[in-house]
Specification:
- Chain A is an alpha/beta fold.
- Helix content of chain A is 51%, strand content 10%.
- Chain A contains 23 helices and ten strands.
- Chain A has a six-stranded parallel sheet with strand order 1-10-7-4-2-3, with helices on both faces. A four-stranded mixed sheet of chain A has the order 8-5-6-9.
- In chain A, helix 3 packs across helix 13, helix 17 packs across helix 19 and helix 20 packs across helix 21.
- The longest helix of chain A has 21 residues.
- The radius of gyration of chain A is 26 Å and the shape is elongated.
- Chain B is α/β, with parallel strands linked by helices.
- In chain B, helix 12 links the parallel strand 7 and strand 8.
- The radius of gyration of chain B is 20 Å and the shape is globular.
- At the A-B interface, helix 2, helix 4, helix 13, helix 16 and helix 18 of A face helix 1, helix 2, helix 3, helix 4 and helix 8 of B.
Amino acid sequence: MSQRIPVTELAADFRSRATTALADDQLRTNFRTAMDSLMKKRADAFPDEQEREGLRELGNRIKARALSRLPDLLEQLEAKLTENGVTVHWAETVEQANRIVHGIIEARNGRQVVKGKSMVSEEMEMNDYLARRDIECLESDMGEYIVQLDGEKPSHIIMPAIHKNARQVSRLFSEKLGEPATDDVNELIQTGRRTLRRKFMEADVGVSGVNFAIAETGTLLLVENEGNGRMSTTVPPVHIAVTGIEKVVQNLRDVVPLLSLLTRSALGQPITTYVNLISSPRKPEELDGPEEVHLVLLDNGRSGAFADAQMRQTLNCIRCGACMNHCPVYTRVGGHTYGEVYPGPIGKIITPHMAGLNQVPDHPGASSLCGACGEVCPVKIPIPQLLQRLRQENVRNPAEPQVVKGGGSKYSRTERMIWQGWQLLNTRPALYGLFLRAATRLRRLTPKNAGPWTRNHSAPVPARRSLHELADAHLRQRGDQ
Amino acid sequence: MNELFYDAAPNATRVAPERPKPRQYPDKPAEVVLFGTCVVDLFFPEAGMDAIRLLEWEGIRVHFPREQSCCGQPAWTSGYRDQAKAVARAQLEVLDRSGFPVVVPSGSCAGMLRHHYRELFADEPDTLARVNALAERTFELTEFLLRVCKVRLADQGQPRRVALHTSCSARREMDTHLHARELLGQLDNVERVDHDHESECCGFGGTFSVRMPEVSGAMVMDKTRALMDSGAVEMVTADGGCLLNINGSLEKQQQAFRGRHLASFLWERVNTRARKGAV
């Protein structure tokens, strides 16, 4: 797990990264413009509110049902895939998953890997792992390709390079690929395509993610819009799919509503350009397809979330990205500020069980709890509630046993004492009355500098008389009190 | 747990469980309790008084129990569950004493009473029954005026153009995002104008505003700019927290533009005797 350290170091400093991002006008414009467009696309894709809400409820129940039988479904998936000729591997940690992937590549003496988009492979930091073993791992999704070319990480789970505009991509392409500068998006995409097309042909191994793993039929479903997913999974002689254990669903019927929710919530599409259903390696009578297909099922803390009835809901996630598209915090600070693989609201609630809450101590608090994320979540994950729960876990006494990995990282005796004082004030009417009287009578003494509040606001001067006093006088006049 | 085992209909994207029904409202009661909220208590007491006046104008006898304080939300959203629970319990005692419907002039505090008390007391079955009863009789001011009192507002004021800011709690917890709009719509001489990203959070979020001042500050800057660019001469809102945030920011920016609590705005419009600032 040593390769995680630089990432988590950055994550610990959410506020300073946010400050830098907020001062970057170009970045803010890129995100605001992109997120506005995505919000509109989603809204347009769900013209009927009743249908949308019914479908979300259905999606939630399908995932809840799948999770309630998770161990059984995973076993069924493994049995069915094995029957179909797909090799299934289990990995508890990212280290194990990387070792498995490396082992498969080594067995074929592979040196070149081409990868479709996969967030789990980002979670594993697979590119770095393989690069250190002299294996080139090339991203074939256009957005992933751009961030890889620039030595960056994805800033969005669906659109990895959304933080860049066309001009910035053009500059990057002319710098790294020696291409003539152009702002024409189509031309830029053609440039990327030409480079990638050759790589598909040369690659020894193709790697992809999985959107839904269907237990009943032993099928791996992968959606994409660029065709790179189909190329990565069919052209090279070996295909390795990597995915989290929560992606398993019971049957193909379940996939229909989930798929509709996924593509409409993510990009406002009725369906993606490509929907790949992979059930086996190439059969003797077939002309195309890989000779070997492997599935690596990664846990990486997911079973920890599964064990907690409330946090289990994080495993509903189908990775559409709608929560970040609608998040007023994400829109302003961008994905890199989170310093973790999964940014935005969903990242805040799944990173703790992967990396530990102590690795992302500021994340649960980096939300106004406005609820926009929960409102749009296609599988109805109560994200604000889970953020609130993580805030509780964050202030637990670290000396006590923790429920969530790395809990208690924001514990402060001083702050606890302040809240105890606040409790006393708000449970003793006489004391509260005295406080109101003092605050209103001494309002002129309100400090001009009230810490972080007065950075953005004028000093909060109380009224001349509190509502308690005014209401009292009013009711006395009425003859009540 | 049974619902977890719900079986999806074959090949259907349109067959889905029934949605929860919208809130059913009772007839207009003779007496209510006003839960003032701590922010209104200390910073916008006139808004609380105007809420009382509006309710009395509707012929309702309003009680204001002195023992009330804060709903407990600041500790709750900060992760201090025990402290929030103690304060919530104190409010529950006070509000249970009369058993009258509770009217709250703030969306987020109403949301706390109506939804989060249930989470706080989930482990106490006896208290939970009382909490559920409280939730049933807790109303945000705008929904109470509109759906319970069924007010018909006769506008007495001069033509005025206003922007409306709806709190996230009103929008997403209380389901009252259209109520204030409808109330303003009853005023003949008031024109409500839209503002950019109207449904977006103002950045307050209680302690979020002091824990993450950089992000919160960026949000309130965008919100105030949108409000000022809307063409409105003032902003109205039914939430004390948003009002504290937005007005505090406007004052810091030395802008003349201000927001006002909806209760004060409505009272001034319907009552010819009411003058801004009069007790």
